[in-house]
Design brief:
Elements (H helix, E strand, L loop, with lengths): L7 E6 L2 E6 L8 H5 L2 H14 L3 H20 L9 H10 L4 H20 L28 H10 L5 H16 L3 H5 L6 E3 L4 E6 L5 E5 L2 H14 L12 E3 L6 E5 L2 H14 L8 H14 L4 H8 L4 H6 L3 H10 L5
Antiparallel strand pairs: 1-2, 3-4, 4-5, 6-7
GO molecular function: DNA binding
Organism: Rubripirellula reticaptiva
Pfam families: Phage_int_SAM_1, Phage_integrase
């Protein structure tokens, strides 16, 4: 087995040897530490090299750590992990089928990396069958057109914060963009394309999309920029900024996706709308509304930025309305 160079520090924590990566500062799982430098290199390659999306990195990292801790409790070493270990572990998880599929996907990717680095001979997760899962409709609750209008009207624009929040929610409604993409917007991403303004989004998976801005949304963004003093700001300036506690004064720091999600939930609550609604609810409403108007699935798919039309269909709530109409006719 070839030893690949890696920098690590061995520590004794709770009577167990933990190897801490010098480059990342994160503790390596015990089984990875015991397997030697090649396994340690494969771990960092898997977590920090192959997975670029931070959310996927966190989810896959948790899944693999949990499985390796389980195997360590069974007295297994990495080269001795078998398909039965993987199958029994998945059967023991009290998770939804979708979550189990995520865990299996993480294990398959991780052990693929171990095979490549000659830590194990075969991938024990490769032959394990996941639970059959067919999703016809997504679980994200839909906000109705009337509720979305009520929410926009409820926002007090007596301060820059009000203008900011109204602009963010309007972008969610009128572009079907994800809150993470909106959080990445810079001053330069609000572009005058000649005949109309556009927003340039950097979305997950490295996708870049340019979506035209309708006239009322253009007005909301322009008014916010004027009140916030961003009209002549640097192109690299964050478009949507945080506030200094409750002072309603904007800082130079960009809002994160979590900041925006909390703001939307607070505005939803203040407007007296159901608490189950979330920023993603606007995406459902926009897609359903356009499909209800006869806009083609391909055009709606392009607006939503989905690679597969089946993903777009998960946001379509038209069938739910038909089903409800049918069950209401039951004579019992």
């Amino acid at each position: 087995m070839e030893d690949l160079p890696t920098k690590s520090i061995a520590l004794l924590v709770n009577d167990e040897t933990q190897v801490v990566s010098a480059s990342s500062g994160d503790e390596l799982p015990v089984l990875v530490a015991k397997a030697g430098p090649s396994a340690q290199f494969a771990w960092e390659e898997f977590i920090y090299g192959k997975i670029r999306n931070p959310h996927t990195r966190d989810a896959y990292g948790r899944a693999v750590r949990q499985f390796l801790k389980h195997c360590d409790g069974l007295g297994r070493q990495l080269p001795n992990v078998s398909p039965r270990d993987v199958g029994d572990y998945l059967d023991s998880l009290d998770y939804a089928p979708a979550t189990k599929k995520l865990h299996l996907a993480a294990l398959r990717h991780f052990f693929d990396t171990l095979v490549t680095r000659h830590v194990v001979v075969l991938n024990p997760a490769a032959s394990v069958r996941g639970e059959r899962l067919q999703v016809v409709e997504g679980k994200t609750p839909e906000i109705t057109i009337q509720q979305a209008r009520k929410l926009l009207r409820s926002i007090n624009v007596s301060s820059a914060v009000g203008y900011r929040d109204r602009a963010i929610i309007a972008i969610l409604i009128y572009t079907a963009a994800r809150v993470g993409a909106i959080a990445k917007l810079r001053r330069r991403d609000f572009v005058d394309a000649g005949e109309q303004y556009c927003l340039r989004f950097n979305e997950k998976g490295g996708k870049q999309r340019e979506i035209p801005v309708r006239h009322d949304l253009q007005q909301y963004i322009a008014e916010y920029m004027r009140v916030a003093g961003l009209s002549n700001a640097s192109d690299k300036t964050p478009l949507f900024r945080t506030t200094i506690r409750r002072t309603k004064q904007l800082t130079d720091k960009a809002m994160s996706a979590n900041d925006m999600s909390r703001m939307v939930k607070r505005r939803i609550r203040d407007a007296g709308l159901p608490n189950r609604l979330s920023p993603h609810s606007f995406r459902v409403a926009t897609i359903t509304d356009l499909l209800s108007q006869g806009v083609s699935l391909e055009e709606v798919q392009q607006l939503a930025g989905h690679a597969d039309p089946r993903t777009t269909r998960l946001y379509d709530r038209r069938q739910r309305k038909v089903t409800r109409n049918i069950v209401e006719r039951i004579s019992v």
